[in-house]
């Protein structure tokens, strides 16, 4: 069917798409499932061949859609190991920041004295040289270097406990090995 002008053809195409949208999307989905590998290879090749064009297009889109671009960039970040979800990375950074505070060894020695210089898991007698600092709530799970979160353990128990909390540790078969 020939149209008198280009705008009429575009209007017809938009109306046709709206009227047959469900069917068209279903057909596209089936095609994409059947040709997934081919489509991925084509996209990768196209992106490799058109790096500069793609960069320009992305910049133009970001200028036209500043809110969307900022939101998209705030969720994901490219790292050497791949694309990382930023919220997870931020949570990890905050946990690290909390634990970077000063570790008061005098206060830790006083706590060891209060606990009788004994490993809090196996009961082994400790000295200043054999005692290791352990976090009751691991830094990985948001624990801090506050004296209330520290306890003395022998090297063997501290290595076995790793990044587990005391509840996880005491609930495992660790004590009976």
Descriptive notes:
This protein is mostly helical and 177 residues long. The protein folds into two domains: 6-72, no CATH class; 104-176, 3-Layer(aba) Sandwich (His-Me finger endonuclease fold). The chain is built from nine helices and four strands, in the order H-H-H-H-H-E-E-H-H-E-E-H-H. It has helices at 6-19, 21-34, 36-49, 51-64, 66-75, 86-99, 105-114, 155-161, 166-171; strands at residues 76-79, 82-85, 132-135, 150-153. The strands form two sheets. It has a two-stranded antiparallel sheet with strand order 1-2. Strands 3-4 form a two-stranded antiparallel ribbon. Strand 1 and strand 2 (82-85) form a beta hairpin. The longest helix has 14 residues, at 6-19. It is elongated. The model has no long low-confidence stretch (mean pLDDT 81).
In short:
The protein has helices at residues 6-19, 21-34, 36-49, 51-64, 66-75, 86-99, 105-114, 155-161, 166-171, and strands at 76-79, 82-85, 132-135, 150-153. The chain is mainly alpha-helical and 177 residues long. The chain has 2 domains: 6-72, no CATH class; 104-176, His-Me finger endonuclease fold (3-Layer(aba) Sandwich), CATH 3.40.1800.
